[in-house]
Structure formats: C-alpha cells, structure tokens
Design goal:
single chain, about 220 residues, Cytochrome Bc1 Complex, Chain D, domain 2, 2 domains, two-stranded antiparallel sheet, 11 helices, globular, binds heme C
Length: about 220
C-alpha cells in the first residue's frame, strides 16, 4: 500500500512537470536549453531566421533529423544553423521531439498562418510555413543535398509548369513519392522524400500551393 502511494506521488510529480520522462519530452528540454526558438518557430512561438518547424516531423524523418543536427553544413554548406555538437543521446532525443511535430501546434496558435494572409499570398505562405522551402529552396530553385538521388539534390520546382499540368501537379503534391529512383541502384534510398501532403494539408491548401508553384515559372516567349 505504502509503496503504491509513493509511486503514485512520484508519478503525479512527474506529470506536474509535464508527464513522465520519454525521449520526446527530454528532447523538448534540449530544444529549450539550446534556445532553438531564437531562430525557429513552432506554432505561434519563436523566431523566423530558420524554417518554421511546426510540420518538421511530417516532412523529415527522425533519421534525417538526427543527421542534420549532427552537421547542418554537410547538407547546406552556407547554412546559418550552428553545429551545436550535441552528444548522441541529446541528438536522438531532440530528433525524437522534432519527429512529433506534425502541424498540431497551429491549432493552439488559432489556426494555420496561411489562413491569416490575403488569398493571393496563401500558396506562398504554405510553401514557406509547411516547409516545401526546406527541400525545394527559396522560389523553388532547389539546392538541398540529397544523397543517392538523381543529380544528388532535391529537384528545383520553379519550372514544374513546363513538365506538369495543374492536375498532375496537384496529384504529385498530394501523393508524394514514397520510393524515389536511386542514382546508384545498389545504394541506399535518398533520405529526403517528397511527402504525401494529402496527409497533412487540405485539398484547397494543396491547390493553393500548386498554383504558387505554377506561378514560379519564368515567363517564356510563348506568353508574349
Ligand atoms: C542562428 C539561427 C539558428 C539556430 C539557433 C538554430 N537553427 Fe536550425 N536552422 C537554421 C536555418 C537558417 C536553417 C535552414 C537551413 C538552411 O538553408 O540554411 C535551419 C534548419 C533546421 C532544420 C532542418 C530544416 C527543416 O525545417 O526541415 C532543423 C530540423 C533545425 N534547423 C533544428 C534546429 C534545432 C533543434 C535547433 C536548436 C538545437 C536549431 N535548429 C537552432 C537556423 C538556426
Ligand atoms: C523532404 C523534402 C521535400 C519536401 C518538404 C517537399 N518536397 Fe517536393 N519533392 C521532393 C523530392 C525528393 C522530389 C522528387 C520526387 C521524385 O523522386 O521523383 C519532389 C518532387 C516535387 C515535385 C515534382 C517535381 C519534379 O520535377 O518531379 C513538386 C511539384 C513538388 N515536389 C512540390 C512540393 C511542394 C509544393 C511541397 C510543399 C507542400 C513539397 N514539394 C515539399 C522533396 C520534398
């Protein structure tokens, strides 16, 4: 009896501090300790120097996140993101925490940020805040390293208009690409994969971001 009561009290104290300790909850602590919010936003909270992390666990695998945290410059040579030289345990916990972030924080923040901008800017805001930009780059110009992908990088999408109809584009963004073609068939699967956005975004949001991608194409001669 006594032992049970003590265990209950310890459990209650742990809950008061934010729940029993898990890798994810410890990772939240690491995030706070290193003040990641100085540069990153989750929901309504944080800065905008680095990408919004509200959807980071949807777009990036825990495996990729742990590697990114090990050496951001290995993926993006000129990155502003510091190498925090975390030990493997802290890095794993942080990756586990980031892996839980799949968009829920916008609910606490009173809705998605793209519902708060004028309709003409909605697609661009989704591109930025849902994090298409973290793989396809600013303005869809590409550039992120993707080992063993064809070309070694995530493709640019600024010219998608030349290769896809609007309908094809919407489908491509909705369904994603689960098994990308490998540059070396014997090598590992590329770590950055086009996510199936229909699991995270509503149909009208996918259409808005598709229209933004279409708007990126540089004007060609035929338009004149
Ligand atoms: C000085 C600003 C800065 C700080 C501090 C910082 N980051 Fe970053 N971070 C960036 C920038 C900028 C990028 C975008 C990569 C690029 O293109 O350079 C980035 C990218 C990322 C990415 C991958 C991109 C994505 O969203 O899909 C993750 C994950 C990340 N940071 C996590 C963290 C964590 C966790 C911390 C704290 C330990 C942290 N960052 C601290 C600036 C920062
Ligand atoms: C985790 C990285 C990642 C994120 C985030 C991401 N993509 Fe992709 N995307 C890819 C990769 C990799 C491909 C190439 C797919 C393949 O293997 O054919 C791709 C392909 C595409 C294509 C087809 C282009 C082509 O030439 O095949 C479009 C369009 C596209 N993405 C748009 C988007 C939009 C819009 C978003 C945000 C809602 C987004 N992507 C988010 C990685 C990403």
């Amino acid at each position: 009896m006594k032992h049970g009561a003590l265990a209950l009290a310890v459990f209650a104290a742990a809950c008061a501090k934010g729940g029993p300790s898990t890798p994810e909850s410890r990772g939240r602590g690491v995030y706070a300790t290193y003040d990641c919010k100085r540069c990153h936003r989750i929901g309504a909270e944080g800065g905008d120097t680095g990408p919004d992390l509200t959807f980071v666990g949807f777009r990036k695998s825990p495996e990729f996140l742990a590697l990114w945290l090990k050496d951001p410059a290995a993926w993006q040579p000129n990155t502003l993101m510091p190498n925090f030289k975390l030990n493997d345990e802290a890095r794993g916990q942080l990756a586990a925490h980031l892996g839980t972030l799949k968009g829920e924080a916008y609910r606490g923040a009173g809705g998605a940020p793209w519902d708060k901008v004028e309709p003409a800017k909605r697609g661009a805001e989704i591109y930025r805040r849902a994090g298409c930009v973290t793989c396809h780059g600013e303005g869809g110009k590409g550039g992120y390293t993707n080992l063993n992908a064809i070309g070694g990088k995530v493709p640019a999408v600024e010219k998608a208009r030349e290769g896809f109809s609007r309908e094809e584009l919407v489908k491509r963004i909705s369904d994603g690409v689960a098994h990308p073609v490998k540059a070396d068939p014997a090598g590992p699967e590329p770590l950055l994969k086009m996510p199936p956005w229909k699991e995270a975004l509503k149909a009208d949001e996918i259409e808005a971001v598709a229209d933004y991608v279409l708007s990126l194409a540089p004007a060609s001669k035929e338009d004149w």
